[in-house]
Design goal:
The structure is a single chain. This protein has a single domain, classed as Luciferase-like domain (TIM Barrel, Alpha-Beta Barrel), CATH 3.20.20. The protein is about 45% helix and about 15% strand.
């Protein structure tokens, strides 16, 4: 089972004069500990209400992951998630290509529809058509990565004999994981993407985030079963990634936390999960770095597979 480490930006942004140093320090520490990827999220224009009631700061994920790419050699760079309908698909394709080529093919693009109406309004995008916009964007981006001229009549653009270059290093295109819990999101992941990335969401959070609740490993099993059903319906065969985290995040670095994490990893592996989203505890950067090392020494060697 491979692992993608969540980078907590409150530890990176508490002193803005050290942001770059802290990003590279975390990226290098994660790579040294054997993490397969590190991930950042996407919020270009969150509302003040969300930010002051549990929301968090965000960097542009493409720019920040490019920065980490320059300081590392093997670890993959994972957007978890980029909200695809926020941007014109040619602009997004260029951002992803840039991350892919500067990292020599290390980009993993987790993507989703988002949920924050205020952010959609601020960006000038249509919240109510975000699902069809995602389907369109996935089709257009793959054409933009093909190396062939693109002509496409979109809902908000008209591309006529466009030739975006360079094309990505990874073929046929950078790794795409579709995120979300709703049946439409699961269908989209199965139809257009290389993997599926469901999100934990308690019922009250699911209502706020306009998604379907997912709280337990039993819920996760149900979503994965739906994903496999969609793959079968579409006639898609081959190896597809499933990326999810444990239902309980480690709060300490001790034997009890280790066992809980390994037990959950084993159960997830039995469902077909081959990438585990991982967070480690730490109130300060030094504590967090120690926890990264603990995970690499104590957890990673005993993960399934």
């Amino acid at each position: 089972m491979k692992t993608s480490l969540y980078i907590p930006l409150h530890l990176v942004l508490d002193d803005l004069t050290k942001t770059g140093d802290r990003l590279t320090t975390i990226g290098r520490a994660a790579e040294a500990a054997g993490f397969d990827a590190c991930n950042l999220t996407d919020h270009p224009a969150p509302t003040a209400k969300w930010r002051h009631h549990g929301g968090h700061d965000a960097l542009d994920p493409f720019a920040a992951l490019c920065f980490i790419a320059a300081a590392t050699r093997k670890i993959r760079l994972h957007t978890h998630i980029v909200v695809l309908p926020y941007r014109n698909p040619f602009v997004t394709a260029k951002c992803i290509t840039t991350l892919d080529v500067v990292s020599n093919g290390r980009a993993i693009i987790g993507l989703g529809a988002g949920y924050m109406k205020g952010e959609y309004f601020a960006l000038g995008m249509d919240y109510d058509t975000r699902g069809p916009a995602m389907d369109e964007a996935l089709i257009v981006m793959k054409q933009a990565w093909s190396g062939e001229p693109v002509s496409f009549e979109g809902k908000a653009f008209s591309a006529r004999d466009i030739l975006p270059t360079p094309v990505p290093v990874r073929k046929p295109h950078p790794t795409l994981w579709g995120g979300g819990n709703a049946r439409s999101a699961i269908r989209r992941a199965a139809e257009h993407c290389d993997g599926f990335s469901p999100f934990y969401a308690a019922p009250d959070q699911a209502v706020r985030n306009k998604t379907v609740p997912l709280e337990t490993l039993a819920d996760l099993r149900e979503k994965i079963a739906l994903y496999k059903e969609e793959l079968a319906r579409l006639g898609r065969t081959g190896d597809f990634d499933i990326c999810s985290g444990p239902s309980e995040r480690p709060e300490t670095c001790d034997a009890t936390a280790k066992q809980v994490l390994l037990d959950q990893a084993g159960e997830m592996a039995g469902m077909g999960v081959n990438w585990m989203l991982t967070s480690v505890p730490g109130e300060t950067l030094d504590e967090y770095l120690d926890a990264i090392a603990w995970f690499g020494e104590e957890i990673r060697p005993e993960l399934p597979g």
